[in-house]
Amino acid sequence: MGRDRYVDFLRAWAIVLVVCGHWLITGLEHGPDGGIRAPELLAAVPWTQWLTLGFQIMPLFFLAGGHAAGGSWERERAAGGTAAGWVGRRAVRLLLPTGVYSGLVLLAVGIAAGVGVDPYTLSLVGWAMAMQFWFLPVYLVLSALTPVLHAAHRRWGPRVPVAMGAVALAADAVVAAGQPSYVGLLNYVLVWGVAYQLGFCWRDGLLGGGRAVPALLAAGGGLGFALLVALGPFPVSLILVTGQHPSNTNPPSAAMLAWAVAQVGACLLVAPAVRRLVARERVWRLVRPAGGASMTLYLWHMLPVLVIAAACYLTGIAPEPGFGSLTWWALRMPWLVVLGLVMVGVLVVLRPVERGVAAVYERGRSGAGPDRARTWSLWLALAASVVALSRFAVRGFAPDGRFPVLPALGLAVGLALVALVALPGLLSVRPPAPRSGDPAAKDSVEEAA
Q: Membrane spanning segments where (predicted)?
């Protein structure tokens, strides 16, 4: 099966919308003490919660991820590869740039704490730089489960996401009934896993060749969401709002599941038209760079906010109309444009870092895959990484204005072990042999692009 440009478009589109959504709802103002505050727009101006219906686009990223992972794992199996080797390389591709980002942010947190930066300010900045991390542990878990999930897909096809959705609804009902909240943690894998599993089905043509099945998914999911919001206990916001209970994202709720199904259906309905659009080379030249920089965009997109806060708000040159007023909304467009320009500069500065990370990955790929003993190390290292990333996602890089010693250590150890196990060529003194004929290598290059 050839490369599907529409899948690349979905990944790029999802990341760009997430970035723009975060920028749009982020507002800065001076506090009574002269410091910078970031009021929560969705809580302060409740009608803006409806905007999350357009900006909560991550179901499509999991859909595209499942589509790509299904093809990648099939090629790995055909080439005689192992599950541990494939999972390890996928994890490293995610963890290497995440480790570089986290290391630099933690270094800045350590320096700021050492020179006596106000704990509240440090905590706020640390949270802003980690607010996107919820996605990483979920995607790592789904990647690690891919060989099992794909085996189930080969045997039962679309019945697998249906069963996962049913279990997710049961788990949500348990949480809604006030039972142990840890049951809801299952839905991080189950709800987002439904979209991921539908990616397998989409790739294998199991969602119908016409418009009937996509239309049913879109209409059924949309109607389900509307009923759950109108008649049930769920809010309309698809992004976490402080003090709002229940939440559609923490953990993912039945309403989020319905919205994910609706998005998948809508995505398949518009696929033919968008494929024709991205088949034009002029359009593809715009899409491909955005897709290639998607991980960098996702990790670093709050840095421009901090840059503008320091350059314009701390100096007092930025206008500060009433939060949520008409003038405030009118200034959102120049705000987005300025942040976009700063982000372009960040991407340019980080380009050598991206190349270095890619070079480390390609060098490490040479050598034999992990043996049985090292496979256990891989799973333990992945568990440590997932726990550390989850901790950052919940509490930020500077909880209560302090350096997070244990999560930082957990991520460092997890990343080091995953890299050493999955990339045995890292310790080799010989240059890696060319791997142009290796299907896994081809997959790595395509995803990097």
A: 12-30, 50-73, 94-115, 127-148, 160-179, 185-202, 214-234, 254-274, 295-318, 333-353, 373-393, 405-427
